[in-house]
Design brief:
It is a single chain. The chain has about 80 residues and is low in regular secondary structure. It has a domain of about 30 residues. It has 1 helix and no strands. The longest helix has 9 residues. It is elongated. The termini are far apart. Pfam families: PAP_RNA-bind. It comes from Amanita muscaria (strain Koide BX008). One of its GO terms (molecular function) is RNA binding.
Length: about 80
């Protein structure tokens, strides 16, 4: 055990994380593993007018007129 460790004021937390998430300070120069391909971030379809994306139109929902609803309630 470490001589300066004080159990009353110190603690140890162990977490499992991927090595890619570790900061650069824990690796020796040249030791850091190669980074994999980055994931694409989601963007708003309104802001992205890329020709690669299909043109999508929002769904239209049919709402019957109020008069039709009232006549159905009477029958």
């Amino acid at each position: 055990m470490w001589e300066k460790y004080d159990e009353a004021s110190m603690g140890i937390v162990v977490r499992h994380i991927k090595s890619i998430s570790l900061p650069d300070t824990v690796f020796e120069p040249g030791e850091r593993p190669a980074k994999g391909a980055q994931k694409r971030t989601k963007t708003s379809s309104k802001a992205n007018n890329s020709p690669d994306l299909p043109n999508r139109q929002p769904r239209s929902f049919y709402t019957p007129p109020v008069e039709m609803l009232k006549s159905q309630q009477r029958t």
